[in-house]
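Renewal narrative, Specific Aim 1. Our central claim is that a sequence can be written position by position from structural information alone. The example that follows is taken directly from our test logs and has not been curated for this report. It begins with the structure tokens describing the chain, in the order in which they were read.
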């Protein structure tokens, strides 16, 4: 797979996870772990997808989903 195809597949995976999270009610969001790390494979690429949850001082809950795509000697980019 070309890098552009992998980036597109990663974006689609992140969007699917975000859509799933948006269907959660407040209690389900509160019960998420503060960090979840999962290794996935798209084509022949091994990637790491992470979900982070942080409660802000004003009571809002911030949830971030990102995927690390290592390209060369450990260097890569994080897609959010």
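The sequence written for that structure reads:
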């Amino acid at each position: 797979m070309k890098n552009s195809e992998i980036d597109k597949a990663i974006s689609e995976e992140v969007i699917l996870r975000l859509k799933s999270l948006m269907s959660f009610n407040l209690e389900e969001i509160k019960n998420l772990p503060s960090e979840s790390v999962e290794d996935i494979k798209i084509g022949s690429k091994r990637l790491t997808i992470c979900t982070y949850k942080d409660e802000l001082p004003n009571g809002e809950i911030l949830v971030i989903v990102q995927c690390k795509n290592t390209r060369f000697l450990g260097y890569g980019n994080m897609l959010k």
